[in-house]
Amino acid sequence: MKNWKSRLLIACLALISGIAQAVSVKDLANIGGVRQNQLLGYGLVVGLDGSGDQTTQTPFTVQSVESMLRGMGVNLPTGTTLQLKNVAAVMVTSSLPAFAQPGQTVDITVSSMGNAKSLRGGTLLMTPLKGADGQVYAMAQGNVLVSGAGAAVGGAKAQVNHLDVGLIPNGATVERAVLNSLGQDNVISLELKQADFATASLLVNAINQRFGTDTAAALDSRVIQVRTPLGSNQRVAFIGALEALNVTPAPGVAKVVMNARTGSVVMSQAVMLDPCAVSHGNLSVVIKSNPEVSQPAPLSKGKTVVTQAPDIEIKSEPGQVMMLKGGAQLADVVKALNAMGTTPQDLLAILQAMKSAGALHADLEII
Q1: Which of 3, 81, 137, 232 qualifies as a FRET site for 91, CA 20 to 30 Å off?
Q2: pLDDT tens digit string along 169-195?
Q3: Which residues form a coiled coil (predicted)?
């Protein structure tokens, strides 16, 4: 038991009430077509303090520099070998927001793709950013910001952050807008973030009750078709009111998520357990029903009620016993097991055994 206590990792148990709360439509669904678009580009960071790519191991950096110089009218003599220490080849990534227009700026991330030691103090040269269709949608350039902190203890230096990735706030300028067909034919689509037939039906009823009959119709468990007013101004106002509409979603499926490395357990709602017995190593978990009879008073015309009050018994070989009464909930079992020093691996094995035995009525996901 002492070894258990030395390795004890208390699980982080998050319980969300099974009673669903009203949330806005924007938290339940996305509007079809309103999305970000990923951009990608290849460029060079110059001005590094000797921390750039080692050209003997990254020939593409030298080729990129030579190509750039030729484009600027500089022809290197035949047989010239560049020794570059202040240049690094990088990949530039960004996301183009929905409805972005030419002239707007977006943040970019600059990541080394060679063996540069650091991008700190470097400047990204003009880099075209392309979308999945191969078209250029933005141009990036600017000073790379590599944040972080260093520490020196007893003559030894340590760097806390990763120096091969940097940011350039507002480092790219949008050059091309993405065509968007929002509201085409005066119809938009709401796409539920979690497909659910009951929630889709509730959302359709709430929209029709708020904006009129036949405004919304569910196509399946995820997509809801909504009719919008004529005119862009009226359509924008309608979508704003639609996103602010509060709807109470249907209760979701009970789910238990466990991190096998940290032992943290998260439950979507209160998960009940059926009677079962699990033996794992020197641990045993027994859940049994304990009938309780409620007898009405004489001549009260009441009915006798029999309820099941489950008992939970957890034992370990050293003799420690923990009894839990008043409800067979998985939360109680997890708390008791952690209080006895159960390791994350033991907890995982017990939960899997309960699921396999059919006593755990919830989806078990291991991350």
Answers
A1: 81
A2: 999 999 999 888 787 788 999 999 988
A3: none
